[in-house]
Amino acid sequence: MVGVFTMGTLLRRFPRDLRNNLGKYLGIFLLLVVSIALVAGFLSAASSISKIIEDMPDKYTIEDGQFSTSFKANDKAIDAVEELGCTVYESFNMDLPAVKSKSDSSEETDFTLRTYNNRTEVNLAAYCEGNQPSASDEIAVDRVFASNAGISVGDTIEVAGKTMTVSGIMTMPDYQALFEKNSDFVFNALTFTVAEVSPEVFDDFAQDNSVTYTYSFVTDNHSMALSDRVDMEKDIVAALSDNNVAISSLIDSSNNQGIGYPADDIEGDSSMWETLMFLLIIIMAFVFVVLTSATIEEESSVIGTLMSMGFKKGEILLHYMALPTFVGLLGAVFGNVLGYTLMADPMKDLYYNSYSLPPYAATWDWYVFIITTVVPVVLLIVITFIGLLRKLRFSPLQFLRHELGRGGTRRGVKLPSFLGFSSRFRIRVFLRNLPHFATLFVGVGFASMLLLFGLSVMPTMDNYANSLKNTMVAQYQYTLKSPLELNGTDDQRDAYAAAEKLTETEDLSDLPLAELMDLMSKASTIDEDATPINTLPNDQGVIDQAEKYAVYSLKIDRPGDAGQEEVTVYGIEDDSRYFNKDVSNGKTVVGFGLADKLGLDTGETYKFFDEYTDKTYQLTVDDIEGEETAMCVWLSLDSFNEMFDNDSDYFNAYASNKPLDIEGAYLASELTPADMDKIGNQMTNSMGDMMNMLVAVSVMIYLILMYLLTKTVIDRSARSISYMKVFGYRNGEIDRLYLTPITVTVVVSLVATIPILIAALTALFKSMLMDMNGNIPIYVPLSAMATVVIVGFLVYLVVAFLHARSIKKVPLSLALKVQE
Hints:
The chain is an alpha+beta fold. It has 5 domains: 1-60 and 273-407, no CATH class; 61-261, no CATH class; 423-469 and 719-820, no CATH class; 473-485 and 534-671, no CATH class; 490-523, no CATH class. It contains 23 helices and 21 strands. The protein has an 8-stranded mixed sheet with strand order 18-15-19-14-13-20-12-21. Helix 3 runs antiparallel to helix 8 (257-298), helix 14 (434-471) runs parallel beside helix 22 and helix 20 packs parallel to helix 23. The radius of gyration is 35 Å and the shape is elongated. The chain starts with a helix and ends in a 12-residue tail after the last helix.
């Protein structure tokens, strides 16, 4: 009966406690709601999209690889390939010029349509609107391109001079990102797209347009290791060659940017948002500790009285835990409701506006729920429980006297007499609340870290793109599929051109006999052991300034369980005009970015792995050089060829400050500084909206944290403020006496924490991006630092205004209450 009475008495305190501490509990509620809604919204959308991408290989029968031939392969060649353990499908396509007709609300748009026959066996299209084309004037186009171009089902477009009606909006699983060429650095969803037409329409277009003979293959063993699949692909090339089929390209699905790019992007962004949640959890833990301590100090007399009245410690513990637990659970509910409803769609759109993915379907992820909801709520409950439990070991008398862990009475510090009363009073307020102001310093640092993080991401990406540009050794860097000599006589060029034409001609009987004999005569002069000669002429001066080098990719283990890092290995001339690296006498030079990220040191030996051959190489670091983004190793060309068992004269790349004309069949990629700019622009486009949202939320959280932390100082001084009112001080004078020390502390904290925050964010960024390829060092511009200080101070002004109002509400009666 007594227990029921005592608990009933405590329950009646809840409404009053909530009303008296409305600002504190509202701050906790909003902090939880904003944090959970933002991060849960993104991570739930990212998790759902990742699940969609993960299911796509089986659902839409995504290819394991593709190869293209100069002309249609014969049945015997295809049978030979399928005998290796795979199924081959025709994925023929044409790049057709297209125009979206000008309307009242849009301009005429020219673009390229990579047109496929309706897919029914492999790389199946997912239709978002409309239907697969069936009529002779119907066509289906990609969803992202259609959105950018303002194309809808029922619209008409001109394709290769023929008017076509859009029957469907779809996405293709091998074009999740619209890369026109796999060697491109940035996808293009503005002037390039893919399309499907009926077989009859495809054949009609093929009569007047060039067909690209691409074949997709799916291995019989879907779980085949990459190294085994690479071996199979080598056998595919050999099988085609043995059957007189010239192959122009072969791309494994793991290297197909159209397939893998979105998943890599989402994985990287998810790491960033998980890091953000980690930051928020630390901030919330800190706030919960501060508020729990402040609550106990504020309620010290009440707790002492309750204990003296016979209330059990367990009852008091449950009473003081009930309200924070209720607020925490309520915040979690509202945060999840907002996150999974209002926030999930905008977060999803960040990816669906860029990537051609199948229709979105939300899925539940327990991991996301745990880190965004369970952890913060449990943290609030556990911290409140431990804080209360530690304090409840004191006696009722200690609670009544506010002697909670302080060793005796603190003597006042004698201050210089030349200081005026107001100055001495402010200093005493500061000294009396020194531990609380130290807490405020740390809290401002945490709040500033979140804002600085949001303000620094975009400058960091811009700096990363500029640093990548600086790693370029020449205006043009060409990577070849196989060695190709630029120097050659006209006769040699004619010979290789003749051999190329013979290879590309499907039926030699179609050629006039005289031309056929001439081509065969020229081709017979080729030395089979010599390096092929480029058939496209270049000025001798241009050839002379170009320089050969070799390039290959290896892997190296990252620290912990962060996977493996991709490393570019260069083989360069000892006296290179383009690569300013000393690789003489077999030296190994490692890029600064690689060494910085993985902690590599000179004189140490490290293992590098070839994922395509399963071979392991050991390299000893002799020197560390280059940009912060340089994830590469430089060897002499001789050392490179010796390590990889290449011919002594092997190379597969050119560096040049002037453009080179190189046969497309040999060119794997072309890299220019403009491509680096595209990377920066793409990062800005894909992350800009996300970062703006993060900054806005950071300011909101900043406001909440600043209010909660400074409120504890005001609340602890409530009795002193009441005394000042009794002594006749006006509200404005009290504001200046109590708010000035807080203001000085906030300003000093804003400025003094900047170096600490930069060091913390540097370590945080490194940890966050450890499982991603590349080294992206954080770059914090002066403008971001200034913005943090200015925004922090403006936010504090809002908080100070709220505190000035609360000071006015401190009652005079508080001074008359007995404290001892």
